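Worked Example 4.2. Consider the chain below.
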Amino acid sequence: MIKKITQVFLIAALLIAVTLNGFAQKTLDKIAKRGELRVGMTTTQPPFTMKAKDGSIIGYEADLANLLAASIDVKLTIVELPFHELIEALETGKVDVVMSGMTMTMERNMKVAFAGPYILSGKSILTKTPSYSGTSKSSDLNNETITLVTLKGSTGEAYVKADMPEAELLLADTYEDAIKLLEEDKASIMVADYPICAYTVLVHPEKNLMTIDEPLTIERIGMALPPDDAHFHNMIQNYLNGLALIGALDLLEIRWFDSGDWVELVK
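Applying the procedure from the previous section yields the following structure tokens:
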């Protein structure tokens, strides 16, 4: 599987490199002059972005970022930031793009541009309490006796505030912090993207955590870009379209969301 994905990546890199030849727009100019593509990520949102045991950054979006940098023929630098700081980092030019399991919302689209979506996700829950594992709708959790925790600045925060206003809400800077609150019984449920919940259950069976079979929502995950560079946006969207056409996105999804082959890299 990995060999096949590598072959597809090499083909995609060659095709996209030809497409990029001749572009000299402002964002791409800055990237070319630095010889570096700066991508903002949390590296704490598996399987989108995460750290392996050896300290390397891996995941679905890490692979996408590496391919994009190779296509432009520049060095990839991943800038690690808390999720709620990613948009500001893009606005101030600290990063060139953001790839971190970010849902394409109207509120965010008023600040930044988006390319994609490159995958669909949705909100789910993580819990130690068996009775919550049968949750099928948000109204089941809209109760003042329930304490929820989610990532600060995420769509999970907006989702809980809109659909579960009666529940007590705690905010965490990272999912590791949120899971710790579950383990310490300071929160009964973590609200997060479905893949993150499924990943945590898979990798940490000793924590006795549970999730639900189907996500509670459907969300489009995309790449956040500077809002004032239409040519750069067009180039990135064409890049994603090309990856979809040759099947690279499907292979990435199989590797990181359907296969468990990579789990040993992080355990």
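Residues 2-20 form the longest helix (19 residues). Residues 16-24 have pLDDT under 50 and may be disordered. Compare this with Example 4.1 before moving on.
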